[in-house]
Specification:
Strand content: over 45%
Number of domains: 1
CATH architecture: Beta Barrel
Number of helices: 3
Oligomer: single chain
Order of helices and strands: EEEEEEHEEEEHEEH
CATH class: Mainly Beta
Distance between the termini: 37 Å
CATH superfamily: Hypothetical Protein Pfu-838710-001
Largest sheet: 10 strands, antiparallel
Shape: globular
Structural class: mainly beta
Length: 164
């Protein structure tokens, strides 16, 4: 199960270039259920995602470059390209109603900087081990709106966006 929250951000971290950066390209063969292919640097992945917003099933299977290229030709809509910065978040904050044993000492922020035609969109994603921790998470000050439940910000929906 994937337990993930999505946020827009107010500003980029000052030291962004200090963090690892992955180059992602992904396309969608289907959006209900989500069947996605992704090229992440030199790694190729086929993903199935079940329905849901905060919590949903997710299965990843490895692909090779040839299979990825073959499936990419079959994708519907936009191919999404972005840079993903992997930023550790030490000692994240949680509301008092979340039991201490469910509060992780470290989380990872995946900061996605989208290429055209989606630029200047920038989003942050944070994954959790429990729904309780996800709901009690207090985002860093540089985060803006929680868009976890806004379908407009799900990549599978973005793949179907029409640009004029």
């Amino acid at each position: 199960m994937e337990i993930e929250k999505k946020f827009t951000i107010k500003s980029l971290p000052e030291n962004l270039s200090d963090y690892p950066c992955l180059h992602l390209e992904q396309g969608y063969l289907n959006t209900e259920p989500v069947i996605r292919i992704r090229k992440q640097d030199d790694e190729y992945i086929l993903t199935y995602k079940g329905s849901g917003m905060l919590v949903r099933e997710e299965y990843n299977l490895p692909l090779n470059a040839q299979s990825y290229a073959h499936l990419k030709d079959k994708c519907d809509g936009n191919i999404i390209s972005k840079k993903r910065y992997v930023i550790p978040l030490e000692n994240p904050a949680f509301t008092d109603d979340c039991p201490k044993e469910l509060q992780p000492k470290r989380l990872t922020i995946e900061l996605d900087v989208f290429d055209p035609p989606f630029a200047p969109l920038i989003m942050a994603e944070v994954e959790f081990d429990s729904v309780e921790a996800a709901k009690a998470f207090i985002p860093p000050a540089w985060f803006s709106e929680d868009v976890t439940h806004n379908m407009e910000y799900h990549n599978s929906n973005m793949s179907r966006k029409i640009f004029s």
